[in-house]
Structures are given as structure tokens and as C-alpha cells.
Specification:
By secondary structure, chain A is α/β, with parallel strands linked by helices. In chain A, about 35% of the residues lie in helices and about 25% in strands. Chain A has 10 helices and 10 strands. Chain A is globular and about 45 Å long. In chain B, helix 4 (about 50-70) runs parallel beside helix 10 and helix 4 (about 50-70) runs antiparallel to helix 13 (about 220-245). The chains are: A alpha/beta, B alpha/beta.
């Protein structure tokens, strides 16, 4: 069994259940999108996989190992890396130190290698590497957040709103170069508000609505029919 | 067609938002509680001393609610105001031989002025550093008292004279308790009035985000100093009563230790509610009465309670009771929303349920537009405003020129897009215009008025409304309060009138509630009016940010990535609403957005920044075909 497999996942905040039994499967090396309207529970699913939230029921396995409710730090060691929503950088640390944090517990040689990839992709970060991350513009902070994931060398990459605040050109490039930036066989589950982009670069997708899975399909079946997708989002009949 | 009855109701009625009233439930409870003690004071005269101390601590606690609970200024110097009251009282009664009629106003006035001075450090430092600075104030205060022997009697202290009011002498014991209760009633009434009014709302806002409070046009600096003035004045009233209870004033009683205990008492009781001041006072003053053993371990018990409370009930004893009550009521709330509750659904947040039900139904479509309502219609204007001239705007961070000589003119009432690659300087340009960044140069002229030199809140008052790239909302405040904060710009009643709940204060507040409700209805937020903003999904939080800006009735609205994180359909819907409202009040809009489809759809004109400079400026068609823009930003 390789890849990510989620079975009958239920998650809640306190006593409020927000994910009511969801099954998702991402095969090793596959790129899959998780779509849905605001408040549908997409970020909750991602946070549960990366160990920030504990499932109330169900199982999550990655390459056959049960990871549901595991310690986030242990998951990072296993290669489960999340890019959190909304530019979570350490504002008081400088750019390079922010990146070093992502290499925590790993060999410095790997870091140099990762750093090269990052600086080649985002030269502005190299230019500003000694500046506090809090002084970067919103979009540059997002670049930094993504760069941390590159440094961390993920096996399973979870991205929450990659395109938030990024210029269209960069978004496009980033998606096209996923293979170069990470490794060819990285397994990707991403949450994206821009459904058009997600369908273009992911082979399959799932749609969540109010904590339930309402649609899953190959991207090619919907890429020319955004209205049908829209109705799945909102639950209205098109 | 819509039903006439549907038309005649206001948004406020439909959402069942309670209007501010002259007397409310808390007033009755408070009055009955105080009356009870008043009547029983004679029967239990052996407890007079402890009851007095409790009342005094409750008054001091209420004064701290102003400074710490509402405005969030953690002060450890509060006892210097108490000391001011105590020693002024001792001097007035012995040297001038006057009574309470002189003591109270002088103590309030002197401590008020003292508070304005003590409040100054709060302009520079926050939280821990402020606590340290005020700690020093308390420390120095006591030293001054020791040395100023003429005033304080030095180390040996000073006796307090007779308890008199307009020449009538009163006995101490139950009579003093009754006088104290009347003063407590007045203090609580005043603090409660602030909690309900614009000043309290502004304090609550600046506690949770100063940046956003400034952007809404609130004079943050003055409000911070003012909270120390008012809090100090009220604490001095407690001090006067303390002087008459102890009958002898010794400087060493008013040191840092007392400062810490009054803050502890309020935190234990609950720092956001007047009831918290009472519970805290009861806790601190009655616990040692229980037994002598308790007295020995006083510090341990306060400290231990504090640790336990911070873990289980960060809002103190009051917070704990409220939480329990809330849990019991949740079911009713859901049922009122028309949701049948069975046990498995009981766990759901109401808004999730509403989202499920809130597919645009016929009734929401047929409803008359809130813009036509009695409350929003008068804001309509056909006179376009918001002409903005930016000349040579420049901002440098260290060596990086984030904005490097940008100039443009926006005619009144237009929608202008501002796009550009990451780090092009868009948000920094916004911050330069609104004053949120230091060291910006250049000239900004809004509707013919130069605003370049004004502080942030005055630029907001001149008509700049803005939203934030990273949401900047006031946690703890509900959605309705965010709208009311924006409306503060156009409220007229004064702070003294507010202290005494004058009729015109209530009239204006009621009107503001109606306006706020219609505005929430327009932005489809009415169902969530009572939700704390931090409990809302991201998309709705973005709308709350917009509502706050719209409520200021701005001349020009600056939107920083309003659609980021929203699916395109949702973003379009929100922008439509914003534009509709901007047209209604004839305001201009300047919008930063990466969703080019969206920004091209709504804008008459787009300005493109790159590396701090303008590289293109024109209609959406021109700009999106511009080769430089394609190369730098759009890509092919």
C-alpha cells in the first residue's frame, strides 16, 4: 500500500464535528486537489493529515503506516510536510533562518542543495536573505512559506492555498515546475481556491461541502465545464 | 413580489438584534443586589469592615475594568490612584475640615489628571513593558509619599478626619457601608455606560488591534491616555472610602503589593464584566475571613486559583458561569434558527447549519434591497467623492525602495485597480496613503485636502476607508460591533454624556444599530451578527473587514486583496456588493488584487506597479495587452 489513504475520517473542533466521514486516496506520486467553498472543511482535512488536529474517528495511512493523530514533528520526519494557509512565516527571523528551521534535524549538506533550488526559483529571497521575514511583502512571505517546503524535502506535500497573494505568473511557473522543485515522485494533496488552476495541474480532485465529500472525479472530465463544478461546490442544481 | 410586511420590517427586527435601552437586565440585577446589601447592612453590622473592604475592592475593580478589561492596558500602578484618594481625603478632612462633598470631586479630579500623566508610557510600550513601567510608577509613588511628609505624614502616616457630608456628621459602620453602596452604584453605572457606548467599544477595539482601530478613525493615543484618567479617577473614589474605613492613612499600605492584588482580584473575578469586579472582591476579601489558616496561605491560594483559572476559565469566574449558561442555551439558539436538534447534530456550530440552508432561496431574492431602507437611503449621494492625488510617493525599508516615486490621480467615484508582481510595493503604497507606514514621503491629497502629514485616524476621518491584506479584525468582538466601530466616525455624542447615558446618546446608538443591521444585511452577514469574528470562516471574516470600512462612509475605499482565499464566484459576489454600496454613497474604490479576471471586470482603470514604480496605467484592455505587464506579471 503506497501513498495516502484516508478512510471514514471524522474531525471536530471541541465538540463541533466539522468533517463527517471522508474517504480520500492519493497514490504515490499522484497530484490531487481538494476543492470546495469557504468553510467546507478543506483546511481541517489537511491539518488532520499533518497531525495538527486529531481525528475523532477513522484512519489515515501513509505508505501503509497509520499516521492519524501522530505527533506533527514525527510526521515531518516521515516526510509529511504542510504549507499552511496564509503566509505563516516567523516574522522575527531572517529569511535564511526561516529556511533553516525547515531543515531542523537534517543534514546541512542537504540544506545547501535545497537552498540553491530555492534561490534559483525565487531570486528575491536571496537578495533579501538577511532581512527579517516580517518585512517581506505578503507575496514574498508566501514564496518563503513554499520554500520551506522545498527545503524540507517532502514525500507527501500538503499545500493550503498555494496561490494566495501570488502574482499569476509565479503561480503558473510554480505549478509547472513542481517536479523540479520537489522530486518527481512527490505525492501532492492541495487545497486551492482557483479551481481552474487546480484542475489544470492535478490529475484528480475531490469536492467537499460542509464536511462531506460530494464529488470526486478525474480533472479532464470537468476542465471544460466549470459550471458543473460550481454547482457541486454550492449544492445547487445547475 | 415581496410581502408588504417583509418590506416594513427592518433588518434589525428580522435578525432580532436587541436595541440599547435605558435600563437593561443587568441594571435591575445590580440594583437589587446593592439594595439587598443596603437593607441588610444594619443587621450584620459585625461584618461592616469586611463588607466595606469588598465594596471598595469592587469599585477599584470596576475602575480597572476600564484600564485593563476594556482598553487592555496591563497596569501594576493602579494603587497610586487609590493612594491619591486616601491621602487627599485625610488632608481635606483634617486640614480643611471639609466632608465628602469636597473629597470626592477633588480626589476624582486630581487622580484623573494623574492618570493622564501615568498613561503616557502606554503610547510607547505595550503589555509586559507597560506592566513594568507602571510597576515603577507604583514604586516611585510610594517613595514620594514617604518623603512628602507634609502631605502624607511620612512613615508614621496621617489620621483621617470625620465622616461628613455637607456639614452633617455620620457614624461609621453600617452608615458608611450605605454611602459606599451608593457610590458603588454610581461607579458601576458609569463604567457600564462606557461598556455600552462608543468609548467602551473603541477601547475594546484598540485592545485587540490598534492598527485596525486607527484605520477606523479612532483616536487611539487619546483613548489610551483617557482610560488611565477615567480609571484613575474612579479608583480614587475607592481610595476616599478606604481612608474613612481605615481612619488612618499610612504610605506603606499603598505599595506594589496592593497593586498586584487588585489586578489579581479582577482577573480571578473576570476582567470584562462588572460582576467580575464584585466576584473578585468577594474572593479576595471573604476568603481570609473563613479561617485563620486561610490567611496564612493567602498568597498560595490567590496564586493557585489564578493558575487554575487561567487553565480552565481564562475569563475568570464570570467567564466560567457564562460559559456554563451558554452551553445550556445552545440548544435553544439552534431551535430559534429553525433547526431541529437531535443529539448528533447538537455538536454542530450554528453557522455550519446556516451555510447548509443558505442556498439563495426565493425569499432572500425577493426581499427589498437594504440600500433602499429608511436607514441606508439617506446616505445615498449623487455627488462623487474620493478624488485622490498621489504625488511622488516613496517608502524605503532599510536600503530597499519599496515604493519609488509613484504618482497618479484618481477622479472621484471611480474604481481603480492596482496590480503588480509580489514585492512591487502595492500594499506599501496603501500603507503610505493611509499612514500605516513610517517614513513615507510624497503628497497625498484626498478631495482637495492634503492628508500627508495627518495621523492615521485623522486620515480615516478625512474619508479614507481600508481593509487589510492579512485580516485585521477585533477578536472577542462580534460582527455587529465591527459595523458599529466603523459607524463611530459619524457619531456625535460626547464622552461625558455617554458616562451618564443621556437620552441623545441612546437615540444615536439605536440609530447606529439600525444602520449597522441594514449594512450587515447588504453584505449578507445579518445571520451572523452575534458571532465572534474568530469563529467565522475566512470568507465571512473578509466581509466583516469590508463592512467595517464601508460603515465609516468613506470617500474612497482601499481594498487590499479582498478576494484572496475566496473562490472566484464568492469573490465576485462580494465585489458586486461592495461596488453597489460604493455607488450608493458615490465613493471611489482603489483595489489591489491578483485575480486579474476580477480586477479587470470591476475596474475602469488599472495601474501596474513593478519594483516600486508605475509601469503601466490605462483601461483594463490596454493593460492586459501591454507587453511589459505580460512579461513582468501576467505571463503568457
Amino acid at each position: 500500500m503506497s501513498g495516502l489513504k484516508i478512510k471514514d475520517l471524522k474531525v471536530g473542533y471541541g465538540r463541533n464535528e466539522v468533517i463527517h466521514g471522508v474517504d480520500i486516496e492519493v497514490k504515490s506520486g499522484e497530484k490531487v486537489a481538494l476543492l470546495g467553498a469557504n468553510g467546507a472543511g478543506k483546511s481541517t482535512v489537511l491539518k488532520t493529515i499533518s497531525g495538527l488536529l486529531t481525528p475523532t474517528e477513522g484512519s489515515i495511512t501513509f505508505n501503509g503506516d497509520e499516521i492519524g493523530g501522530a505527533n506533527p514533528a514525527a510526521l515531518v520526519d516521515m516526510g509529511v510536510i504542510q504549507v499552511p494557509e496564509g503566509r505563516r512565516v516567523f516574522p522575527g527571523l531572517n529569511v535564511e533562518d526561516n529556511l533553516k528551521v525547515a531543515n531542523y534535524g537534517k543534514s546541512p549538506d542537504l540544506f545547501e542543495e535545497g537552498l540553491e533550488t530555492v534561490y534559483k526559483k525565487f531570486p528575491i529571497l536571496q537578495e533579501r536573505r538577511k532581512q527579517a521575514a516580517g518585512l517581506l511583502s505578503g507575496g514574498q512571505q508566501q514564496m518563503l512559506s513554499l520554500s520551506r517546503a522545498i527545503i524540507a524535502k517532502p514525500k507527501l506535500l500538503l499545500i493550503d492555498e498555494m496561490s494566495l497573494g501570488l502574482a499569476p505568473l509565479l503561480v503558473k511557473e510554480f505549478y509547472e515546475q513542481l517536479g523540479d522543485l520537489f522530486s518527481e515522485d512527490v505525492t501532492l494533496l492541495l487545497v486551492e481556491q482557483n479551481a481552474g488552476l487546480a484542475l489544470k495541474y492535478c490529475s484528480r480532485f475531490y469536492v467537499l461541502r460542509n464536511g462531506d465529500l460530494v464529488l470526486q472525479s478525474d480533472s479532464k472530465d470537468y476542465i471544460d465545464d466549470p459550471t458543473a463544478l460550481q454547482s457541486a461546490y454550492l449544492g445547487v442544481d445547475a | 413580489m415581496s410581502e408588504p410586511s417583509e418590506n416594513s420590517t427592518t433588518a434589525l427586527d428580522r435578525a432580532k438584534i436587541p436595541l440599547p435601552k435605558f435600563l437593561k437586565k443587568n441594571h435591575y440585577f445590580g440594583f437589587i443586589g446593592i439594595l439587598l446589601v443596603y437593607l441588610l447592612a444594619g443587621t450584620y453590622s459585625e461584618y461592616s469592615q469586611t463588607i466595606m473592604n469588598t465594596i471598595i475592592f469592587a469599585i477599584i475593580g470596576a475602575s480597572l475594568i476600564v484600564v485593563f478589561g476594556m482598553a487592555g492596558q496591563l497596569t501594576l500602578g493602579h494603587t497610586i490612584f487609590v493612594a491619591a484618594g486616601v491621602f487627599l481625603s485625610a488632608n481635606i478632612t483634617t486640614v480643611w475640615t471639609r466632608g465628602l462633598e469636597t473629597e470626592l470631586p477633588i480626589a476624582f479630579g486630581v487622580a484623573f489628571l494623574l492618570g493622564l500623566i501615568v498613561g503616557f508610557p502606554s503610547l510607547r510600550v505595550n503589555e509586559l513593558y507597560l506592566a513594568l513601567a507602571t510597576f515603577a510608577v507604583a514604586f516611585v509613588g510610594v517613595q514620594v509619599l514617604f518623603e512628602w511628609k507634609q502631605f502624607s505624614g511620612g512613615g508614621s502616616g496621617k489620621p483621617v478626619g470625620k465622616l461628613e457630608l455637607f456639614g452633617y456628621e455620620f457614624s461609621r459602620g453600617p452608615t458608611l457601608v450605605r454611602i459606599a453602596l451608593v457610590l458603588m452604584l454610581i461607579t458601576f453605572w458609569v463604567v457600564g455606560n462606557y461598556q455600552d457606548g462608543r468609548t467602551g467599544r473603541a477601547w475594546n477595539a484598540l485592545r485587540t488591534s490598534e492598527t485596525a482601530a486607527r484605520a477606523a478613525g479612532l483616536p487611539v493615543a487619546w483613548l489610551k491616555i483617557l482610560c488611565f484618567g477615567i480609571g484613575g479617577g474612579l479608583a480614587a473614589i475607592g481610595g476616599v472610602l478606604y481612608a474613612h474605613t481605615l481612619r488612618y492613612a499610612i504610605p506603606e499600605n499603598y505599595g506594589v503589593a496592593l497593586s498586584i492584588i487588585v489586578v489579581l482580584a479582577l482577573i480571578i473575578g473576570g476582567k470584562h464584566r462588572l460582576m467580575g469586579a464584585v466576584l473578585g472582591a468577594v474572593f479576595v476579601k471573604w476568603l481570609p475571613e473563613l479561617s485563620r489558616d486561610v490567611q496564612e496561605y493567602e498568597g498560595l491560594i490567590y496564586g493557585g486559583t489564578l493558575i487554575i483559572l487561567t487553565l480552565i476559565a481564562p475569563d475568570g469566574l464570570v467567564g466560567m458561569f457564562e460559559w456554563l449558561a451558554e452551553r445550556m442555551r445552545l440548544k435553544d439558539r439552534l431551535e430559534r434558527l429553525g433547526i431541529t436538534v437531535n443529539n448528533s447534530l447538537y455538536n454542530l456550530k450554528p453557522f455550519n447549519q446556516i451555510l447548509k440552508l443558505k442556498v439563495p432561496t426565493s425569499s432572500t431574492i425577493e426581499k427589498a434591497s437594504p440600500l433602499g431602507s429608511r436607514y441606508l437611503a439617506p446616505l445615498s449621494s449623487s455627488d462623487p467623492k474620493g478624488s485622490l492625488i498621489v504625488r511622488d510617493a516613496a517608502v524605503a525599508f532599510g536600503g530597499v525602495k519599496a515604493v519609488d516615486g509613484v504618482s497618479f490621480e484618481i477622479p472621484a467615484g471611480g474604481v481603480t485597480g492596482l496590480i503588480g508582481s509580489n514585492g512591487a510595493g502595492k500594499t506599501t503604497l496603501f500603507n503610505a496613503i493611509t499612514g500605516h507606514v513610517k517614513g513615507a514621503t510624497g503628497q497625498f491629497i484626498l478631495d482637495g485636502e492634503e492628508i500627508s502629514q495627518k495621523p492615521i485616524h485623522n486620515r480615516a476621518l478625512s474619508g479614507l476607508g481600508r481593509t487589510f491584506q492579512n485580516l485585521n479584525l477585533h477578536d472577542d468582538l462580534n460582527v455587529l460591533e465591527h459595523a458599529l466601530l466603523g459607524l463611530d466616525r459619524n457619531m456625535k455624542y460626547g464622552r461625558i454624556a455617554e458616562s451618564f447615558r443621556m437620552p441623545w446618546v441612546l437615540r444615536e446608538e439605536k440609530n447606529a444599530h439600525y444602520v449597522a443591521a441594514e449594512l450587515l444585511d447588504h453584505m449578507d452577514l445579518l445571520d451572523y451578527w452575534n458571532e465572534k469574528v474568530e469563529d467565522l470562516p475566512y470568507g465571512l471574516q473578509k466581509r466583516v473587514d469590508v463592512v467595517r470600512a464601508l460603515a465609516t462612509n468613506p470617500s474612497i475605499l482601499l481594498l487590499d486583496e479582498p478576494a484572496a482565499g475566496l473562490p472566484t464566484a464568492e469573490a465576485l459576489e462580494m465585489m458586486e456588493k461592495v461596488q453597489e454600496y460604493a455607488n450608493h454613497i458615490s465613493a471611489g474604490v482603489l483595489i489591489i488584487e491578483h485575480n486579474v479576471e476580477l480586477v479587470a471586470g470591476v475596474s475602469d482603470r488599472i495601474i501596474v506597479l513593478d519594483a516600486g514604480k508605475t509601469i503601466a496605467d490605462g483601461t483594463p484592455e490596454e493593460v492586459t495587452r501591454n507587453e511589459q505587464v505580460i512579461a513582468a506579471y501576467l505571463g503568457t
